[in-house]
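Journal club prep — side note

Before the paper discussion, L.F. wants everyone to see what a predicted structure for a comparable chain looks like in token form. Sequence:
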Amino acid sequence: NWEAYWERNDPLRDVDEVAIPVLALCSQDDPVRGEPGSTLPLELFETNPHFFLLLTAQGGHCGFSAEGEGEGGPLWSHRALLEFFRSTTDFFAAEERAKQAARRRGLGGGVGARGFRHRSVSTCK
């Protein structure tokens, strides 16, 4: 039945266990998902440091092509995703270097260490 299906497949069921960066790419004109304010868990993106939302004005349900992009070429969304991966990798590499430097100085990076602060909701025009 429908309720059992959603109980097993609710995408937010295990959200508190996510420990890696997650990028959600959505458009405001998505005809399937509907109005972002009522269909996206915006509070999740504002409060959870692992979830990032890139909300575009246009893109439909799975389009995200830029003006002038021909068939067979990379879509704008693919380039955005690759940039997200690059930025995430760079961030983790910098964090690891900072931890190693702190260990060498005997600081340990434990309680009192500065944490990463960010705003994970972004819009594209």
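L.F.'s comment for the group: The CA atoms of residues 67 and 76 lie 9 Å apart. Keep this in mind when we get to the figures.
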